[in-house]
Amino acid sequence: MKLADQLEYVVNPASGLEVQRIQASLVSWDLKDLNGGALGTDVFYEGRDIKLGRQYHTRYLGAGCWSGSLYQLFRSTTSAQTINSWGKWRIKVMVDLKRIDATANTQNVLFVATYPVTLDIVKLSSPEDITPWAGNLPGCGGLVPAVSFSAANSFCNTGEYKTAQRGFLRYEENLQKMEEEERLQASLPPNVLPTVGSQHLAIYPNPVTDIFTLEYTVPVAGSVKITLRGGFASQVEVLVEETQHEAGTFRVAVDGSSYPPGVYFCTLETESQRTVKKTIIR
Fold it and tell me: In what helix (H) or strand (E) does residue 254 lie, and over which residues does it extend?
């Protein structure tokens, strides 16, 4: 397993950032039979994906390492389903960005993204046809340089980029709507509910790194629904949904490591009020 093409990126000079380190790992629900040569076969728990279930990842390695073979996977099977399940693999990239005007107390900026993996499946007639392990190529610890701005401009004129840009603009639009919703909720008078008591929603710790607590108060019994929504409107998960919920204060533990990093909005809906809280998952 390796990158089919050289990793390409560019950093906007207006950001005041420069790349200090780029690392990547393989993420999948199925890492058995993975051979990493000198890297071994160590895998680590990644978290739970909403659609794919429990996920695991290989160790993070410098992007320069991925120009040569890092891992090999051999599987004896007659089942097409096993082969198709490999489509759940993806590569996770972590970019450590340093501020150009950084001081001793300045924190770096971390960019995290995941990308699909395209598989080349080769059928072998016998185990003897397996290519011996070739090991890693030398110099894999080097930093992959950024592409030129002329190359970046050429890419920005492609259909691939324009399609992705439209998705980003929708993200910005949805994010703006949800932030406006939160501001509106904060400006409402405290006696919005026509009943004794007040509806309450809190998330802590916030920002979230792994497990976080969702605390909510329902002043009267009735229908309750709590959802967690990302910037994309389609990225919604129902955390609590009951048609006959008791009144009182409740706490729910949620595994934040199972969600991609970003800005999320948690919404508590009852029969008489809607409360929105913003959280950041890192």
Answer: strand 248-255
